[in-house]
Amino acid sequence: MMIATDMSPSWARNLAGVILACCLALGCQPATDKPPDGAALPSTADDDRPPVYVTTAPVTERAVRREIAAVGTLHGYERVTLAPKVEGRVAAWNFEVGDRVKPGEVLLQIETADFELAVAEAQRAVEQELARLGIEELPESSFDVDVLPGVSRAQLLLENSRKRFDRQRALVEGRAAAREMYELSETELRVSEAALKQSRMDARWSVAAVRHRQAMLAVAQLRLAECQVIAPPLVPASELAGRDYVVSKRLTAVGEIVRAVPATPVYELVVDSLLKLRAMVPERTIGVVREQQPVEVRVDAYPDQVFQATLRRINPTIDPRSRTFEIEAVVPNDDHLLRPGGFAKAEIVIDAADAALTIPPAAVVALAGVNKVFVLDGAKVREVRVELATRGQDWIEVRGDLAADAQVVTSGQSLLFDGARAIVREAAP
């Protein structure tokens, strides 16, 4: 803005008066009104500010459990998909979905006619080999083939030839005719020895053939037994001892052809009296999560019920995408209220304190990542930085320079600062 320099003296005096009036209205003082050297400026101390009306609440000691929240999925402790070991037509099935099955019970029956014929054929082959050996049953222990009739006959022939040879050897001296008989008996002896060796070899071959036929019979009997699909046993020396299965899927029907290769699934069984909860927890908690810690499980179907579990497994790796790691808790489910595949909420109890300091959530002031509270100290308030821990429905655990009987401000904090004056008013009913 351009100001003319040739203004009249009267106009200049009027302008100066206006400027002086504005300065006085704004609380300014002319330069001539400065206080003398050493004099103090007018007081602007905090005590001159009006007090702030606030409400307060006491710091309370209470027993607190420190927990880590997680969500996950319930799984059966064991899940087994069964398929037949032999090919055939389904003759009958014995259990439907939802039925309880004990280990060893027959779930499904395959037609057995072909397998029964195979067993009979193998049995006749064993009997044929035994008849060739001249015995009715082959001993299970080590077998001496010399007891077989064929080998015994060869031994007798050899013994007879040896005696004849000995007699001719005594008569051979000086007699040409005797010499000829001696050589004949010697040849007969050698033939008998060779016959005995051959007889023993044949006997050993026949014994091996019997054992082979017996093995084929055992295979045929096994395949006949495998016409039944049976619920597998559970590990006896574990938590599964004495438990049973529930049928979650029946995958075949009577008359259907099932195969071993490629396998045709026929049943799916689940152990549901003991469940596994698999959940993901944040990477930052890896230092406090431990095996055997108690876990409280809740599901939406039973909102008022808490299922107690135990943390059993901690995955040693962290998922780099979500920065979480998996935990596995074992949940007893003897009453079968929980279902495998269901969604569940979990709280891992990592610690407990009998006298933790707690305050109402309204008392916490958060600013730029710093949490603080205002503590009433006489007629003034004191600012205290705190760390937040476990949260409850209407309280929060804090750690800081707080006494158990202190009063913290719960309203009016926006007007407070460290050392501000405060007047406690009654909270609205």
Explain what the structure shows:
The chain has 429 residues and is of the alpha+beta class. It folds into four domains: 52-64 and 354-424, conserved putative lor/sdh protein from methanococcus maripaludis s2 fold, CATH 2.40.420.20; 68-74 and 272-352, Beta Barrel (Elongation Factor Tu (Ef-tu), domain 3); 84-110 and 228-265, RNA polymerase II/Efflux pump adaptor protein, barrel-sandwich hybrid domain (OB fold (Dihydrolipoamide Acetyltransferase, E2P), Beta Barrel), CATH 2.40.50.100; 114-225. It contains four helices and 19 strands. The chain has helices at residues 9-25, 113-133, 149-171, 176-225, and strands spanning 52-58, 60-82, 88-93, 100-101, 106-110, 228-230, 245-250, 257-258, 267-282, 294-299, 302-314, 324-332, 343-359, 365-367, 370-377, 380-391, 396-400, 407-411, 422-424. The strands form three sheets. It has a six-stranded antiparallel β-barrel with strand order 2-9-12-11-10-13. A hairpin with a 2-residue loop joins strand 15 (370-377) and strand 16. The longest helix has 50 residues, at 176-225. It starts with 8 loop residues before the first helix and ends in a 5-residue tail after the last strand.
Assembly annotation? single chain
The SSE order reads HEEEEEHHHEEEEEEEEEEEEEE
What distance lies between the first and last C-alpha atoms, to the nearest angstrom?
61 Å
Give the amount of beta strand, in percent. Answer: 35-45%
Radius of gyration: 50 Å
Q: List the uncertain runs.
A: 1-9, 23-46
Structural class: alpha+beta
Number of separate strands? 19
Largest sheet strand order: 2-9-12-11-10-13
Helix content: 25-40%
Name the shape in a single word.
Answer: elongated
Largest sheet at a glance? 6 strands, antiparallel, barrel
Count of all domains: 4
The number of helices is: 4
Mean pLDDT: 82
